[in-house]
Amino acid sequence: MKQDMIVILDLGSHHNTNIARCIRDLGVYSEIKAHDITVEELKQLPNVKGIVLSGGPNNIIDGKEIDIASEIYNAGYPIISFEHKLAQVDNRTYPANEEELKDILSDFVFNDCHAQKNWNMKNFINDQVEIIRKQVGDKKVLLALSGGVDSSVVAALLIKAIGNQLTCVHVNHGLMRKGESENVVEVFKNQLHANLVYVDASERFLNKLAGVDDPEQKRKIIGSEFIRVFEEEARKLDGIEFLAQGTIYPDIIESGTKTAKMVKSHHNVGGLPDDLQFELVEPLYQLFKDEVRACGVELGLPYEMVYRQPFPGPGLGVRCLGAITKERLEAVRESDAILREEFAKAGLDKKVWQYFTIVPDFKSVGVKNNARSFDYPVIIRAVNTVDAMSATIEQIDWAILTKITDRILAEVDNVNRVCYDLSPKPCATIEWE
């Protein structure tokens, strides 16, 4: 990496990510490292210009307050220390409430560290192309291309770097949103001319899920079956030595450091089998989610793919509540497509963080085509959140909701009722299963 770097040493602060993001917003690359990094390890990092010590209420382990190695203080790097609500540079002490953070860091990064404002997506892509080519050489790389933002951006970056040395495998498990698998084929096979293996395993997945109504069991079946299908396709290919993954920086942060507590484990951070036969290629591991999207835009991916909504791994399988049936799955898919289309027309697709429909496993009496009907309800959910730990409900204009309701009732089979979920998180969760 050619860009200048500010290293944040984790001494137990809750604000490590905020500091890292703030420095990157200034146009300088930043990275969080464990507090016990050695001088030798620090000097192996490229272009380090300064160090941020980020302490707080968690900077005590086994009853002892932790600190960095004394040699680092004398290693010649400018150092700023954030501890609770104070920031110190040499003998200068600053208050750090949130609105002053950017000014303090800007002064430190540019005046004390003399860092250059050279962190941007164009430079990042150029660096990664060089790194990928050096790592892979003339060997072949395999990528599971789900159609999600991370895997799509990894695919586009690898295509730019190594072209036909990449093979993408897209498994359609029958639980995708309307048109998503077709969009993956159109963009990557027809437009970017990637080596794309398309696997329609929808019947296989639905047969495995038949009669299963427990949400966790459904997730396990979908996850394990996906791995089996992917492994089967990988065995058909010759000469694959690398496996590409869409690991991004929050995955690494949430999986924990020696000081920070783990938020949740990620399968792609330390969760892969020890006997993995591939060497990993993870070109996005430095990026936050919005930076991944910016990278996708710079690479020329379509807007709707880059700004695709968060979508659970089990797909519509956890929005077709209870045991999955083809008729309810199709009702979820069609009603979701109507909701997305109308939100886009109203500009809500850029305002609302996540919106989708759910079809539960029960029916209610109604009237359709002047006759009694006994059909399923469709439930609409639209939420806003910053970190997905809590969520508020979007107050949708009544006219828009009415139009969506009318379309769902007129165009979706086996449905006679539309409801709007008004439950925030907590007490509800964002998804229903």
From TrEMBL:
What Gene Ontology cellular-component terms does the record carry?
cytosol
Query: What InterPro entries does the record tag this protein with?
Result: Class_I_gatase-like, GATASE, GMP_synth_C, GMPS_ATP_PPase_dom, NAD/GMP_synthase, Rossmann-like_a/b/a_fold
Return the EC number: 6.3.5.2
Q: Which residues form the GMPS ATP-PPase domain?
A: 119-308
Q: From which residue to which does any coiled coil extend?
A: none
Top-level taxonomic group: Bacteria
| Residues spanning the signal sequence | none
Q: Which UniProt keywords apply?
A: ATP-binding, Glutamine amidotransferase, GMP biosynthesis, Ligase, Nucleotide-binding, Purine biosynthesis
For the ligand (ATP), the binding residues are 146-152
| Pathway(s) served | Purine metabolism; GMP biosynthesis; GMP from XMP (L-Gln route): step 1/1
Q: What enzyme class is recorded for this protein?
A: ligase
Under the heading Pfam families, the entry gives: GATase, GMP_synt_C, NAD_synthase
Give GO terms: molecular function aspect only.
ATP binding; GMP synthase activity
What is the documented function of this protein? Catalyzes the synthesis of GMP from XMP.
- What is the name of this protein? GMP synthase (glutamine-hydrolyzing)
Organism, scientific name: Longibaculum muris
